[in-house]
Design a protein that fits this description.
By secondary structure, this protein is mainly α. It is built from 7 helices and 4 strands. The strands form 2 sheets. Strands 1-2 form a two-stranded antiparallel sheet. It has a two-stranded antiparallel ribbon with strand order 3-4. It starts with a helix and ends with a helix.
Length: about 190
């Protein structure tokens, strides 16, 4: 896999260099992605107005802010299926279309599976992905990594020291997103 990733990066860089500077913005986006942490959050103001500089304290402060803005529904009603005797089947064409639309440069979720890996796997990957999603939907269980998200604060604008000026972005599993798209498409048809 590392060799394939290296080859893909080399191909990309060659294509950028062959364009003689016409696609430098793509090149710099690539470099920034490789660098990883694009920018630390500066000191933020706590509830008492004091500046918080410790990364753990900043994370806890942002978490408290996000938790106060969102709620978790606990009274979810059971849905009785009228077709419980028929297994849910996922069409290969739907997964093929979903993978074609999958962005290569999307951040990975808690399962550490990049969208580029699924896309590079191409036709060989599709039957295995379909089987995994079939098993998941028919058993009614979801892998633990699919239930988690990496929450990244993104600055919306304004004063960078104000917690309310950051919005949470959840990085979730790319494979789980494929399943969500399949189920959402099915629900829209029903």
């Amino acid at each position: 896999m590392l060799k394939a990733k290296g080859n893909a990066q080399e191909t990309f860089l060659s294509s950028v260099l062959q364009n003689e500077g016409k696609s430098w913005s793509e090149f710099y986006r690539f470099v920034n992605r490789c660098k990883g942490n694009r920018g630390n959050i500066p000191a933020i103001k706590g509830c008492n107005g004091g500046l918080i500089t410790d990364p753990v304290d900043k994370a806890n402060n942002l978490n408290d802010s996000y938790a106060s803005a969102f709620s978790c529904e606990r009274n979810i009603p059971d849905i009785n299926s009228t077709h419980s005797d028929k297994p849910f089947t996922i069409k290969i064409s739907i997964i093929r279309k979903g993978l074609a639309m999958n962005g290569r440069n999307k951040a990975v979720g808690p399962d550490d599976i990049p969208g580029a890996l699924l896309k590079m796997g191409g036709e060989a990957m599709i039957p295995y992905l379909v089987r995994l999603l079939d098993i998941t939907t028919n058993n009614g269980t979801i892998p633990r990594d699919w239930k988690n998200a990496i929450v990244v604060p993104v600055h919306k604008g304004g004063d960078r020291s104000v917690v309310k000026n950051y919005r949470p972005v959840s990085l979730t599993s790319v494979v789980c997103k494929q399943m969500e798209h399949v189920l959402a498409g099915y629900i829209r048809q029903v």
